[in-house]
Amino acid sequence: xxxxxxxxxxxxxxxxxxxxxVATKSNTAGSSAEPAASTAPATAPAGDGTPVNIDVLxxxxxxxxxxxxxDQLTKNGFNVKLxxxxxxxxxxxxxxxxxxxxxLSGWTTVTGNPDYxxxxxxxxxxxxxxxxxxxxxxxxxxxxxxxxxxxTQTYKEFEQRLVFDEARIAPLYISLKSxxxxxxxxxxxSVRLSKSRALAWEDIDFNDTAKRTTDPLILxxxxxxxxxxxxxxxxxxxxxxxxxNMYVRLVNLTDDDKITSDASLSRNHTIADGNQDYYFILRxxxxxxxxxxxxxxxxxxxxxxxxxxxxxxxxxxxxxxxDHRTYSLHEHINTVEVFTDLNALDSIKVAGGNGTVKEAxxxxxxxxxxxxxxxxxxxxxxxxxxxxxxxxxxxxxPQVLNYLAHQSAGIVSKKQVESxxxxxxATFDVNKDIPYGDQNTVTEGDKYNNTLYTSGPYILxxxxxxxxxxLKNPAYQKGTDNEALIxxxxxxxxxxxxSTLSAxxxxxxxxxxxxxxxxxxxxxxDSKLQLKSIPSNGxxxxxxxxxxxxxxxxxxxxxxxxxxxxxxxxLAFYNGKKxxxxxxxxxxxxxxxxxxxxxxxxxxxxxxxxxxK
Length: 613
Prior knowledge:
The protein has helices at about 65-75, 90-95, 115-120, 135-145, 150-165, 240-245, 305-315, 340-345, 355-360, 400-405, 415-420, 495-505, 520-525, 550-555, 555-560, 565-575, 600-610; strands at about 50-60, 80-85, 100-110, 170-180, 215-220, 250-255, 260, 265-270, 275-280, 285-290, 295-300, 335-340, 370, 385, 390-395, 460-465, 465-470, 490-495, 510-515, 530-545, 580. The protein has about 625 residues and is α+β, with helices and mostly antiparallel strands. Strands 1, 2, 3, 4, 19, 20 and 21 form a seven-stranded mixed sheet that branches.
């Protein structure tokens, strides 16, 4: 985790489909307007009362927020120059070049745990970290080893240093997560809205259940170019929802971010005493699906322990594939094995209790455990023959379960992936080597050669520039409550919010996932639509440049910016459809910390900054 994947695109990169609010830094395309920008560093001309120059970087899709920030800073003694970029790529280029003092940034914690909300962003060497603060590092690592009952105080101390002592960020707000559903076509209650996890397709149903086999469920998302259908090679809005529905995981998140075995590969899971060993008892009713003649068929290959070990070993190994984008989520995994010692299982105590691991894993099973088998082909749950996975972390780390619920921990076929990925990773050639999950292999045309084996409820048959066609896995928990209800899901690629809303209102799509707050009134005014909103794990904030700028060297200057931010004014602009924040952990933990705008403090810090010049 020291370098987690994710800013990779999550605060406005919402899949305009049922899904992926796995956002991080917004990459939604904005207007094509030329960037209005100066790249001059912040300097304070001599003389009291002289405005301090400051460059604020953002995207056109966040122009309202940028204007509010500009006005608040101007009112408090800054001369603000906005650098507004039309899209994420140009924004990132400006950010990487250091052409800003403050950038409007965002992060969504898609795993539901606070470690994900801080490690990648703020630890020294993190994937998206521009910080190097040993005290922050120590607090992040301390909290990672603690239980929820213990880590609230640690994250409170983390926030105190990050925001109030060092002013590394200036928080703006928490966003809502919302969806609009055509309730005349779909059972609105069957379309889940989860705080962190992507939209679960298998639960969705038509009002007219006879349509399950005749009509497709039509959803949408903004991105038509898919990073990869190999779950470890992407963590962005183009694939998070898709891979979540194509690959089963050891555990899942409930809609309110609790860890569950429901609708996962595990019937039960438990933590052993010491919070370092984790056990999972596997289902025997899931086979991999594949595509033949663009139809989904059962491969006959059971999803089992060897696939779990293979999938998680490659997930944690930075060098298992070229351009591995999610290994840092799984760095705390030490070993993964198929565990077959039944006697030991009956003697190991569970964490925080007096029972044994065997008792915990047997809870609710139709047949108690009579035998643990190494070969997945020998598993027979009805006869008490099970496979058990033991995962050991590098240190006590209960939050590992949240990362195992992430799409990057999806279980792939060991046999199939090894047969496709025959290239040498060190000498991988993008011009000739075709890795497992390459989107070109599922795109209609002369390169189409679908080699996917998926373990989840759906599999992608093919895609083009217009849509992707997903088909039900015919061998996914068949006959259980977790079996997918609708045979086909069409994901339309629609780039902008206005077009997506128009498609929903005209009946071209049935769900709009991630409705902007500015469109709520339109949805609520349409009698055939139902709007549902919940607080999200997405936080917007100002991030300070940490190199070659005055804000990098002056905590007084950063604090002057911090106390200029008036969250009450921001919430008023959004008619109360935003929530106050302190840091990226705010949606997850109530630390009790509060940021209050204070013009007097602003002037105090500006004076101190000028005096130091």
